Amino acid sequence: MTADVGTQLRKGVVESCVLGLLATEPMYGWQLSETLVRHGMIASIGTLYPMLSRLRAQGLVSTYDERSETGPVRKYYELTPSGRQQLSDFRQQWASFSVAVDDLVGKDDQ
Amino acid sequence: MTEPIVTDYLLELSDALADVPRSTRVEILAGVREELEGLGEDEAAERIRSLGDPHFIAAGAREDVAAPSEAPEPQWRSTVAALLVMVGGVVMPFIGWIAGIALMWTSRAWSTRVKLLATVLPALGGLQVLIVTTIASLFETESVDETFRYPGLSEFENPLVPSFYDLVFTVPLWGLPSALVIGICLLVTANKPQRVTGSSAWGVIPVAVGSLVLPPVGWIVGLIFLWTSSVPARTKAVMTSVGPVALILGVALARVFTEEPVVLLAAAIAVPFLASLVAAVLLLRTPTAKAQS
Question: Fewer beta carbons within 10 Å, N or C terminal of chain B?
């Protein structure tokens, strides 16, 4: 149970990050995966899909198929109303939470 | 067209994901496939590089999925299910087989496609016999050689035998051997990565081919392939409806010209097949044509 600190932290917030990304626009798997990997939130696309199916099972995101201009049909993910609600709950709590953590852990250069 | 490096990568990924729960594996493969399909070789190679090693992807999936409850299924369950399907019907007619099928459906060792096929194939065999004998009885005053239109079904050369009688004999004659074969197939395929409908051809072509090779049951089997494949909903709808519509129109049109049963029967088989084939070719060509433009 001593996974590194980064992994522990990401676990709690990565799903909310997905909701946040989808709040701007519906996205397909690769888009999400690429953005999240770039930000260091997930290791690979392999972590993304179990998470997406969990979010879908919870009714927070839904999917639809759309043909892309290059040919393949892509599965797009979008927020449901309860996904939006969940995201706004998270945003509210996150602000005070991060302030509280900052206060408690202090800064390195002190 | 899908590049060979894409096919190789997907196969490698599928192998790496072998021990990941089926639903997750299917989603990951579909997600990666939709990203790599239609790309040129260089682009595909680039994207594959950024996707990373299949084993790395699989490790991520395993780590995440390990948390929720999906415990691995004991090996004996799938074996018992397959054995019951195989010989359960001999030990306890019907009940043994039904128990096997029920156990099979609760198991995660097979894909939905395999489960559906294993369940309906014996019944479809009976349906085929019923339909063929019904059609054959329509021909009973006609020349007998019409029945030769069904190669391999020469046991129904005498159309005067009532179809009910045929059916009673068909249950053990067809049911037991088919259950045996299906059970063996289940044993062999249990917990193996069953091909996750690679190309859309695997969903579309069986409908057309099935409607020609063994109408109408071949068509129904084709529909199972279609609906368990990953082709878009629109393709499924088109491929499902094109056969029946073509059948009705084809026979209606043929009747304008002739009442000859042989011609009508030929039309009833040929027209839906040709219509399905054309639809299949058109549906399969669309994405490639777009990718090239």
Answer: C
